[in-house]
Amino acid sequence: MKKDKAVVVFSGGQDSTTCLLWALKEFKEVATVTFDYGQRHYEEINCAKDIAKELEVSFHLLDMTFMNQLSPNALTHHDMEVEDGVDGELPSTFVPGRNHLFLSFAAVYAHSIGAKHIVTGVCETDYSGYPDCRDQFVKSLNVTLNLAMDQQFVIHTPLMWLNKAETWELADQLNALSFVRERTLTCYHGVRGDGCGECPSCKLRMQGLKQYENQKERREE
Ligand code: ZN
């Protein structure tokens, strides 16, 4: 039997769209919450909105642009270069505590619409040094949120232990590989689908897809 109601933290990217499709299988009713934190491209928000519309789920946009006042980073400060982290440093797109804030706001929203379940695409496997994407943090926050609102929230992290290839595999298992490939936006230059092909995000995404396709071919041989 499907569980009741879930809120999906949704950005219109590959990971959160896969989570949304997963949630649609698991829950009777699904709502999305998307954060406007001054992304490099407003196109991300348009993309999330379009996907929510196509999948016929409610779309709730939260204005979090105040995050710009908290910390400078390449995702929100458009004059900064997007760079990979070198020698164990965090990439220039790092926003400290971002997932912590997003999940906490999502939980308040979930409370307001009577949803017990919260779904997020955070992932420890290639978490690029973001401490608030780790499983231990999410479990700890779950306890904190329950105490904060006297609720029994359940935070679901279907991608927590998956690598990029396995995330594509999950999309495929949900019969949505081409949907995720074509509709989502992960590119730092704001290009949907396979993107610009040049930025770190596009490269990572394509690497994962190629890896999954190769594995699938080998299995079918
Ligand atoms: Zn790109």
Structure description:
The chain is 42% helix and 13% strand. By secondary structure, the protein is of the alpha/beta class. A five-stranded parallel beta sheet has the order 3-2-1-4-5, with helices on both faces. Helix 1 (14-26) links the parallel strand 1 and strand 2. The longest helix has 21 residues, at 200-220. The chain is globular and about 50 Å long. The protein starts with a strand and ends with a helix. The structure holds zinc ion.
Query: How far from one another are the termini?
Result: 36 Å
The secondary-structure class comes to alpha/beta
> What ligands can be seen in this structure?
zinc ion
Low-confidence stretches: none
| Name of the CATH first level | Alpha Beta
CATH architecture: 3-Layer(aba) Sandwich
Q: What fraction, in percent, of the residue positions are helical?
A: 40-55%
Order of H and E elements? EHEHEHEHEHHH
Strand proportion, as a percent range, falls in 5-15%
* Side-by-side strand order of the widest sheet: 3-2-1-4-5
- What overall form do the CA principal axes indicate? globular
Question: How many strands?
Answer: 5
CATH T-level topology: Rossmann fold
Largest sheet: 5 strands, parallel
Number of helices: 7
As for the number of domains, it is: 1
Q: CATH superfamily name?
A: HUPs
- Radius of gyration over all CA atoms, rounded: 17 Å
Averaging pLDDT over every residue, what do you get?
89
